[in-house]
Amino acid sequence: MVNEQKKVMMEVKNINLRFGGVIAIQDVSFDIQEGEIRAIIGPNGAGKSSMLNVINGFYHPQEGEIWFRGEKRPSMEPYEVAKTGIARTFQNIALFKGMTTIENVMTGRQLQMNKNFFWQLFRYGPAIEEEVEHRRRCEEIIDFLEINHIRKSPVGSLPYGLQKRVELARALAMEPELLLLDEPMAGMNVEEKQDMSRFIIDVNEEFGTTIALIEHDMAVVMDLADRVVVLDYGKMLADGTPKEVQSNQAVIDAYLGVAH
Amino acid sequence: MDLLIGIFITPFAEMIGLPDLFFQALWDGFVSGTLYGLIALGFVLIFKASGVFNFAQPILVVLAALALISFYKMGVPAWISVVLVLIMFYALAWLIERLILRKLVNTDGNILFMSTVALSFIIIGAAQWIFGGRPSSMIHKELGIPTGSFEWPMFGGGVYFDLLDISAAVVAVILIVCLGLFFSRTKIGRGLRAVADDHQAALSVGISLNQIWVIVWFVAGVVALVTGIFWGARSDVSFALQIIGFKALPVLIIGGFTSVPGAIVGGLMIGIGEKIFEIYWGPLLGSGVEGWFAYFIALGFLLFKPQGLFGDKIIERV
């Protein structure tokens, strides 16, 4: 944590998100620096996933600003956000169930494929090179995440842990600058959690991808994250390094409960 | 005993005894099969891209045929009328996306299905108001589609080929091959399949649902137009034509709701099957076998192979 000169990649400022009378997020601000692993933690219903959905464009906050790469971002639809280099995974796995692993990963290349429609249709000329190139990139990612053996399997039939990994592979295929992971380790056993943690760190270090993740498992977060934001009932409790956050009294109260 | 002979021996003896008649039945079945396949294709397209059974598909066929004839009657040259109908369908696709689908993103399939039911009645009403309800005849001659027939001697007899039928089969095959390639090879095709599986995930990899929906409804409109021209040429163009649309249901059950080749194979099975069955086994069961044969086969598929011959097998881990 010596390098204090890191550039801010994304900044959310005073986000307020309401669903009718329910306040999901109240005046939350934090930033994500280039190249870091940023964790968002908090008890159930704290607004973590909502926060991710705001960044991703699924939700549009009533108030607040999102700054990305030094520019204020206008209200965007999720597919437009994807075009700016932000990929994500979902808490309850959102894969294309009718497709195989490789096909799922290939959808991550969707935005990069721009050869003429008719070339693609007849698989001729520039479209062949394009397809081969994207295939190669996808195979690399599949190798990287060690899911080679299930390349041709329909994803619906895979065990949960592997489905999570395929989802990560699809997000990586987009070559994102910012990767949002919504509870990447939820429902996994210890071994699967270790694997996933290793992959997250590898992605961060080898590809230099900035990562923002939501996680429940405190031990995992403390090991993985460079900095942590703590939310509770839609409000921000703390923001700092894992150490700072762990010793923060408000955080301890929120997690362990306070005697009344 | 007579019954058993009637079922197991007589029909086959007739097939062998009069091969030209048998071949004629096969050909007729093949032609109506490709046409069933065409209608089924319209359903498959929208089902593939949005997971919705589009109740409005048969009425799109009628709409296409009626609009084409009306433009022509207004004095527009035949081929320009085709272009005008295509433009109209593009506008319609855009409107449907804007006014209906966009509001219903991420909702249950049943809600989307009901919205297509509503849509089909709105289109019926609007079409009756604009084009009137009287049957009219298709302008296929003006479009340069050959008519007439010829007899080709074979097996000591002869088989009649209708030029209209031949062109219908050729066009259907071309259309199906192109759409098959479109889905499996192009970026847009992949996007369509992605949208059908999961809206949220599709958005997150940068696929615009709105764009995909406009494309797919437009393509379904193109298929409806082709279907409308050829079905319209075989009978009159009227609102009764939409009944044929529901012949596509058993075709879909047999071929699988998500498969382009399934639509054509299912169509051929139904088309050929019901012709053969009607001619050779029909007399045993009284006439009108053609009316229910397709549904009978479909029921069998539902019991033993519910995803159809080519449908996506969805394996869900519980």
Could you describe the 3D structure shown?
The complex is a heterodimer of chains A (260) and B (318). With 260 residues, chain A is α/β, with parallel strands linked by helices. Chain A folds into two domains: 1-85 and 180-260, P-loop containing nucleotide triphosphate hydrolases (Rossmann fold, 3-Layer(aba) Sandwich), CATH 3.40.50; 99-175, no CATH class. Helices cover 38% and strands 24% of the residues of chain A. The longest helix of chain A is centred in the middle third of the chain and has 19 residues, at 126-144. Chain A is globular and about 70 Å long. The two termini of chain A are 38 Å apart. The relative contact order of chain A is 0.18. Chain B has a single domain, classed as Orthogonal Bundle (ABC transporter involved in vitamin B12 uptake, BtuC), CATH 1.10.3470. The N and C termini of chain B lie far apart (51 Å). The longest helix of chain B has 32 residues, at 19-50. Chain B contains 14 helices and two strands. Chain B has 318 residues and is mostly helical. Chain B has helices at residues 2-8, 10-17, 19-50, 57-73, 78-99, 109-131, 163-185, 187-197, 199-204, 209-234, 241-245, 248-255, 260-285, 289-304, and strands spanning 149-154, 157-162. In chain B, strands 1-2 form a two-stranded antiparallel ribbon. The model of chain B has no long low-confidence stretch (mean pLDDT 85). In chain B, strand 1 and strand 2 (157-162) form a beta hairpin. Chains A and B meet through helix 2, helix 3, helix 4 and helix 6 of A and helix 7, helix 8 and helix 9 of B.
